[in-house]
């Protein structure tokens, strides 16, 4: 109960900027969780075995990589005698690439804007501090100098607390996305060599 009260006090001291910061944080963690689940390979083994299992219709699951393998197998059976198999596979892989990148722009935007929102809270807090100095209301209802500085520091801290783990997760998930995209390209090459 004490932790909840302390958290509510911090939110109140941070001013109205804490509300968009909290919403950004919740949305960012949703995007991270969704990307994490979406970037699951869903298959153990080599690319050649993945393609072989896809051609034999033995794949289980619904990950992007497995669906791309199934799609490559279906395309192979439809176009195996056709000379444009590679171009058809390349065109179809764009759908899977877009799916792999889903929520990436949202996550990147939230990671970039969280510190800026914290900075906005800093500016608002400093304005409040200077206003209390100008009015000589050092001990006002809002806390005067201490309240303004507190608001400035709390929102800056919140913005950084949101952005730093978000940035680390974003970098990790980007790397994962690149690896899965490379696997899809390798899959196309294997199918074209059959």
Automatic annotation (TrEMBL):
<feature type="transmembrane region" description="Helical">
    <location>
        <begin position="106"/>
        <end position="127"/>
    </location>
</feature>
<feature type="domain" description="MotA/TolQ/ExbB proton channel">
    <location>
        <begin position="80"/>
        <end position="181"/>
    </location>
</feature>
<dbReference type="InterPro" id="IPR002898">
    <property type="entry name" value="MotA_ExbB_proton_chnl"/>
</dbReference>
<keyword id="KW-0812">Transmembrane</keyword>
<feature type="transmembrane region" description="Helical">
    <location>
        <begin position="13"/>
        <end position="32"/>
    </location>
</feature>
<dbReference type="GO" id="GO:0005886">
    <property type="term" value="C:plasma membrane"/>
</dbReference>
<keyword id="KW-0653">Protein transport</keyword>
<dbReference type="GO" id="GO:0017038">
    <property type="term" value="P:protein import"/>
</dbReference>
<comment type="similarity">
    <text>Belongs to the exbB/tolQ family.</text>
</comment>
<dbReference type="Pfam" id="PF01618">
    <property type="entry name" value="MotA_ExbB"/>
</dbReference>
<keyword id="KW-0813">Transport</keyword>
<feature type="transmembrane region" description="Helical">
    <location>
        <begin position="147"/>
        <end position="168"/>
    </location>
</feature>
<protein>
    <submittedName>
        <fullName>Outer membrane transport energization protein ExbB</fullName>
    </submittedName>
</protein>
<keyword id="KW-1003">Cell membrane</keyword>
<keyword id="KW-1133">Transmembrane helix</keyword>
<keyword id="KW-0472">Membrane</keyword>
<dbReference type="InterPro" id="IPR050790">
    <property type="entry name" value="ExbB/TolQ_transport"/>
</dbReference>
